Amino acid sequence: MLRTHFCGELRPDHQGQEVFLSGWVHRIRDHGGLLFFDLRDRTGLVQVVASPADGEPYELARELGREYVVAVRGRVFLRSPETVNPKIPTGEVEVRPREIRLLNPSRTPPFEIEDQTETDELTRLRYRYLDLRRPVMMERLIFRHRVVRAARRYLEEQGFVEVETPCLTRSTPEGARDFLVPSRLFPGTFYALPQSPQLFKQLLMVGGLDRYYQVARCFRDEDLRADRQPEFTQIDLEMSFADEEDVMAVTEGMLAAVFREALGELLPLPFPRLSWEEALARFGTDRPDLRIPLEMRDLTAAFRQTALGVFSRALSGGGCVKGMRLPGGGRLSRRELDGLVEEARNLGAGGLAWAQIREGGEWHSPIAKFLSPEEREEATRLLEARPGDLVCFVAGPEREATGVLGALRPRLAEMTGLLPAGPRFAFLWVTRFPLLEWSEEENRWVSVHHPFTSPVEEEMEELETHPEGVHSRSYDLVLNGVELGGGSIRIHRRDLQERMFRLLGLSPEEAESRFGFLLEALEHGAPPHGGIALGLDRLVAMLSGATSIREVMAFPKTARGTCPLTGAPAEVEERQLRELGLYAVRAGKK
Fold first, then answer.
1. Which residues pair with 354 in a beta bridge?
2. How many Å apart are CA 186 and CA 195, to the nearest integer?
3. More exposed terminus of the chain, fewer Cβ within 10 Å: N or C?
4. What pLDDT is attached to residue 227?
5. How much is the pLDDT for 173?
6. Does residue 193 contact residue 230 with C-beta atoms inside 8 Å?
7. In what order do the strands lie in the sheet with 529-535?
């Protein structure tokens, strides 16, 4: 027997019991003959005290080093009051060994196994198996487990069935690039790793499963970004005979269950809902952070006859003037305000106009002298500005003006300390996105979400004539300004799906070649259905307070998409390539 208890479980109630513990030597201290070492496992650590009177256990303890793997048989004793350690759960007890067994020595680790480390991330990923021993990393993986467990339990209670979908499928390029896997048995052909289980979960609905979920592994060969991974996990679900409200209600219930179990918090339901248009109009983004109590207003009407050149030029060109009030911004220095102007320029605006509101409504601003008293008064009224506030303006095309002010919202809140005043977690549904958007690069319409998203029924007649005005039955879930996931009600009729493919520029032959299996399935009694996918890595990172999704994944890739631990991606042997009928162009060679 190597274990009867975990190290972190021992309490005063265990006094006098003989226990078997196993773990790693965390820290060693020699105090004038008495030898102390902390034994650590995933639950925590406990102090082991050996004295010369113990004989062989003491002699063996003297030979131990940090991160040695040992088993200890001993008895639990209460610590004396002056030696109690209130910083750890086991701080009232200690173990006096009767036997110590060395299970495996350890080389000196390249960094200390502590929560706080100055070691760079690349080194930590190179020795990830050591990094995972740090309590903070272990806690995050266990926290991730609790999140998944709570989600699974809730979905199963709601009648969902977990089904695994294939990881080797066919490439249906639409969106991000696929990871391709060559077939040895069928030379010249390729599988693709799934970007999502989208088509298979729709086929499960056609198959009558009714309610499906999966903790799904997904793969996207995207351009590298700081907090993206080429492989990631999502909580994926689909429902038959459901509309948008049904899917959103199930998602909210699942997240409420996760918050109760993983955080011990009650999540207010239902989440707020905003249409895509309203989100842009009020916050300048389709994923606003509702913890920030700042909204923009349209001031175009107030400056319609203005003599201020930057405003009048924007309005004469069909643009607008957007404004935002920053409570307490009147105390910002001129240097800070100049920094905001520069940030606005970097975001693509011609500049940023501002005014600090003084007592009596007086404007302290470089643009005040170019505006009439009526214009200043109307802008103050529309923005509900008060003495001590700052008001900011951006003029230009509507998408540009709202986008710039929206991007400045977090910065403005940070400058005046508004962000901490909001709730810790602020969820929001953004609905009714445009169905399509025009791609100048591809010279065609592309899907805002994906080509299987259903258009709003009352707008279907305009699909061919005014596609830019058609909205989708889609919904994104936003948490603290971050898109957590998205979903939609799907197209469940072949004729409508074929219309969508035509709008996207796919010929009937291309549509049949890529999606013929789906089109055929839709002819065999496909029910109305919809679903959603939530990014598990992102959810766990945000709930646990991690700064990166890499901190909540056991074996992540770097921001460059490499694995320092295994050396992936790596070259393969020529023999393997010949079996696949492939020729590789090596890096740096022509």
1. 392
2. 23
3. C
4. 79
5. 65
6. no
7. 161-162, 211-219, 231-240, 529-535, 482-489, 474-479, 427-431, 273-275
Beta strands in 87-210 (DSSP E): 93-104, 161-162, 180-182, 190-192
CA dist 469 → 80, 401, 466, 488 (Å): 76, 21, 6, 18
Backbone angles phi, psi at 25, to 5 degrees: -75, 115
Q: Which two tokens stand for residue 264?
A: 């011990």
Domain with CATH 3.30.1360.30 in the chain: 292-422
Q: Which amino acid is at 504?
A: L
Give me the CATH topology for the region 7-104: OB fold (Dihydrolipoamide Acetyltransferase, E2P) (2.40.50)
- Give the 3-state DSSP-derived string for 461-510, with helices as H, strands as E and coil as C: HHCCCCHHHCEECEEEEEECCEEEEEEEEECCCHHHHHHHHHHCCCCHHH
Q: How far apart are CA 505 and CA 472, in angstroms?
A: 18
Look at residue 239 and give its three-state secondary structure. strand
> In the chain, which residues fall in CATH 2.40.50.140?
7-104
CA–CA distance, 500 with 491 (Å, rounded to integer): 9
> What gap in Å lies between CA 11 and CA 470, rounded to an integer?
64
Could you identify the residue written with the tokens 């198959």?
Answer: 207
Say if residue 71's pLDDT is above 90.
yes
3-state secondary structure 367-407: CHHHCCHHHHHHHHHHHCCCCCCEEEEEEECHHHHHHHHHH
One-letter amino acid of 496: L
d(CA 435, CA 499): 13
Greatest Cα-to-Cα distance within the chain, rounded to the nearest angstrom: 95
Helix axes 135-157, 536-544, angle to 10 degrees: 120
Mean pLDDT of the chain: 94
Determine contact, residues 537/229, Cβ cutoff 8 Å: yes
Q: Can you tell me the distance from the alpha carbon of 105 to that of 103, in angstroms, rounded to the nearest whole number? A: 7
E strand residue ranges, 299-443: 320-326, 353-357, 363-364, 390-396, 427-431, 436-439
pLDDT greater than 70 at residue 461: yes
Which percentage of the chain shows pLDDT scores above 70?
A: 98
Residues 169-182, mean pLDDT to the nearest whole number: 85
Q: Select the more confidently predicted residue: 172 or 56.
A: 56
The tokens of 336 are what? Answer: 């800070």
Find out whether 513 and 475 touch, Cβ atoms under 8 Å. Answer: no
Residue 185: which residues within 8 A CB-CB, separation 6 or more? Answer: none
For CA atoms 568, 569, 570, 575, give the dihedral sign: positive
DSSP 8-state code for residue 81: G
CA–CA gap between residue 311 and residue 306 (Å, rounded): 7
How many residues would you count in the chain?
590
536 is written with which tokens? Answer: 């598990």
Convert the pLDDT of each residue in 17-44 to its tens digit.
999 999 999 999 998 789 999 999 999 9
The torsion defined by the Cα of 156, 157, 160 and 164, in degrees rounded to 10, comes to 0
Q: Please, which pLDDT band fits residue 576 given cuts at 50, 70 and 90?
A: very high
Which pLDDT does position 586 carry in this prediction?
74
CA distances from 539 to 115, 124, 268, 481, 552 (A): 22, 23, 17, 13, 10
Interior/surface letters 299-334, b for 16+ CB within 10 angstroms, e for the rest: bbebbeebebebbbebbeeebbbbbbbbbebbebee
